[in-house]
Amino acid sequence: MKKVYLDNAATTPVRKEVVEAMRPYFNRIYANPSSFHMAGKEASDAVQEARKTIAGIIGARPQEIYFCSGGTESDNMAILGAARFYKRSGNHIITTRIEHHAVLEPIHHLEFSEGFKGTYIGVGENGVVDPREIEKALTSNTILVSVMMANNEVGTIQPIAEIGKIILKWRKKNNTQFPLFHTDACQAAGALDIDVRKLHVDFLTLNGSKIYGPKGAGVLFVREGARIDPLLRGGAQERGLRPGTENVPAIVGLGRALELAQKEREKENARLIRLRDWFAGEILKKVPGTYLNGDSEKRLPNNVNISFLNCEGEALMLYLDAKGIFVSTGSACTSQTLDPSHVLLAMGLPPEAAHGSVRFTLGRETTRDDLKYVLRVLPEIVKKLRDISPTQFEYGKK
Amino acid sequence: MAKNNKPDLKKGEQSWLYSPEVKDHFYNPRNVMGDNEIKTYEADGVGEVGSPACGDVMRMWIKVDSKTRKIIDCKWRTFGCASAIAATSVLSEMAIGMTVDEAKKIKPEDITKKLQGLPKIKLHCSVLGDRALRAAIEDWESKNQ
Predict the structure, then answer these.
(1) Is the ipTM of this complex over 0.90?
(2) A391 shares contact with chain B (CB less than 8 Å)
């Protein structure tokens, strides 16, 4: 059976060049980078090399790059770490309603257990945050703002640089170093220009598993002068902010993956945007009762998120699965909480449209032929599910 | 990885979450109310439960022999996930041939058992199924008693 993987926002395969770059560090250059001998030095050099590469790509200094286990840990390091370090300076955190759970849950925890107060900014129906809403929420108690660079579900790109400028202006006007500004750039990496100086961020989260690098590899950029309380206590690795023996192969792989993504970014973006717009357009044309979720312009080149009315997302996903097409859905039925996607609800979608949403995320290996195959089987699958549904929702708003 | 660098999932042709029985009913649902008959079907009782907000809506149509009180036909339509669809499908098979009094006693666990189990988080889907059938029976009763 033909297999079409359209879940690249969940994770990407590790590309060949990255596997090759990682290979020596499993059993040839395997020493502990902290060991004070030649073998250790060799491993340590590889880590520092990756640090330099990544710093160069995001416009940071090598000493501002901290390696950790992935996007979730990096988000937690920034949010819990900054909140705890600066808790005497204020207890207010601003974020958005469309963040990844790796950002929302640490903030919920800080609210629930550590005396902080969170403000959750909504988005327009296009899934984009209005920077003025962030500005309005700023108070003298605000120590941290966290806004994702691109959304993982609907792919919408957020105005990070604009928010960054607003925060700089606020700090200057009030003669304070607060709030600090964090962005989760896991979905943006590889597709957008991630330059921490242009974005005016103090913390930035990256990981390997969305950019054809290894899982279990993440980065937190911490601007010099910004401080965090470490989550873990132990050795002096990563200047004590992330103790534990470095995952050398993963770090090397992450560096290589980001380097390759950066090099191919423009060409690959252009290819993906062409495919994305054609594919989304064909679905909307071929299947009635479908709507594109999220802004059609301010979105990642690989994201197509569509609501199929009167067609439940998990059922649709599994019918596609049976045809070898792998996607994901914002339906309640695939979540552990039985609530539909918080992102789609924040955009104002009625629950029945959120339940029928499917996310197709294209990747390096996606071809027009793959998508043609999807377009061939999708309409009949939707029809079959609609034929067994008693509902007749209409959603005339769009 | 397969040679073509596409995912090579050993069981990729079937979803890992559900039992074979659930998959069978999900991919080949029985007794669905067809488009061609929905307008002409002379149901003796109709019941609907669920709400679009929670993502499950089930409707059941039954025909009842008023002498024997047996359910002689049962059709359904479901908006919902795989387990909701499978639960209604298997329930329609269970109900046909039962008396309404027997059918009213069908418990969610009976449906779950017929489906060889459901993931814990999906158990509520089977609950909805038996409620839809009971609503249809009550509709019939209200017209016949």
Answers:
(1) no
(2) yes
